[in-house]
Amino acid sequence: MLYDVAHERGYKALIAGYGASALNLAAQYLPDAITIDISLPDINGWRVLERLKNSAATRHIPVYVITTDEDQDRGLRSGAIGVAVKPIQTRESLDEVLGVLFRYAERVERQLLLIEPDPERSKRLRPFLPSSRVTIIEARTAEEAVERLSAQAPDCVILNPSIQNGSASDLVDNLVAGGLQGVPVLVHAPEDGGETASVVARMLSKTAVAREVQSPERLLDLTALLLHRRLEDLSDVQRRTILDLRNGDATLSGRKVLIVDDDIRNIFALTSTLEQHHMITLAAETGRDAIAILEANADVEAVLMDVMMPEMDGLATTRAIRQIRRFRDLPIIAVTAKAMKGDREKCIEAGAWDYLAKPVDQDELLAMLRAWLVR
Predict the structure, then answer these.
(1) Using H for helix, E for strand and C for coil, what is the string for the chain?
(2) Fewest beta carbons within 10 Å, which of 13, 181, 259, 342?
């Protein structure tokens, strides 16, 4: 049904039955829009959404989540533009869902509402706001913010909670009544207003998609994500700010990775790369040792799995790991020396979530680990 509706609306359609396949197709084709079913056979759909939104190449693509799980807030907080709950009873309902997705994908202009009483602070924030094909509308008072919201729902709101001299609950009630429900809100207070920001963000989260943002750099990162702006559309300084924020050692530092390879030279090379970024590494030279190490180390957060190993190869080891219930959601990255046709598909069918060809490119490896390990 999704395929047919997409074609009727003039779109080409790609179908993936596995989360790992979806990630590969998304990276290869960079589609205009994506729908994700949460109940996938290999990777939980929420993890697929996180992976898409934590990748520089795909974070801008609008995603609509289709799920039996009614956790709508989780999807919107993760960067989806909407969540539809199964079962979708009629073709008309499905057409309506895709209509929302396609209209959003085709509308290149975005609107950002900046609710900020201080003109000087507003001016200081401007370098941390996307500007390419983004119309920034400002409101200096709560009344003006309600007026703006009533006139047209923006794609994102940045709120300084000190906009109103009344109680936090009055502010929240006024904004929600003005049309804030369903719009992502980033609560960004001055340095001395952190406590108020936390209170307002918690109150707003009951009826809207809200989160507190403490630094201007994180504000830039999240507004670009929620407005679905490509990194290429940002200024050089903004792009570098986001990449530095996401690619810093803090993302990887202290995270534990298991390296599975029968060649000690490969283990040494990968270990050296990861330890430069303060990661903790464990190593196994056989599939059976890998399983034993995982069972003894519950805090392993990712596995680099060599495919070509004697006796129990990487595919068999991956299948065995996936049979253990507590490792169903463990990121496993297949590493193979022979980039043969069909290798990627075999790895995915075995239960790998990602795929690297040898010789391993260090930057690609680190980017892949960051994307899987960011929560």
Answers:
(1) CHHHHHHHCCCCCCCCCCHHHHHHHHHHHCCCCEEEECCCCCCCHHHHHHHHHCCCCCCCCCEEEEECCCCHHHHHHCCCCEEEECCCCCHHHHHHHHHHHHHHHHCCCEEEEEECCCHHHHHHHHHHCCCCCEEEEEECCHHHHHHHHHHCCCCEEEECHHHCCCCHHHHHHHHHHHHHCCCEEEECCCHHHHHHHHHHHHHHCCCCEEEECCCHHHHHHHHHHHCCCCHHHCCHHHHHHHHHHHHCHHHHCCCEEEEECCCHHHHHHHHHHHHCCCCEEEEECCHHHHHHHHHHCCCCCEEEEECCCCCCCHHHHHHHHHCCHHHCCCCEEEEECCCCCCHHHHHHHHCCCEEEECCCCHHHHHHHHHHHHCC
(2) 342
Same domain, 114 and 228: yes
The pLDDT of residue 375 is: 58
For the chain, the domain total comes to 3
56 and 124 fall within a common domain: no
| Domain with 295 in it | 249-373
pLDDT score at 204 = 84
Residue-level pLDDT at 35? 93
Does residue 260 surpass a pLDDT of 80? yes
pTM: 0.78
pLDDT tens digits along 59-102: 999 999 988 766 677 888 888 998 888 777 678 888 888 888 99
Stretch 156-169: mean pLDDT: 79
**Residue 299 to residues 224, 282, 302, 304, 353, Cα–Cα distance (Å):** 32, 11, 9, 15, 18
Of 189, 218, 246, which residue is a domain's last? Answer: 246
Task: Return the pLDDT at 164.
Answer: 63
175 plus 230 within the same structural domain: yes
At 348-366, the pLDDT tens digits run: 889 999 888 888 888 889 8
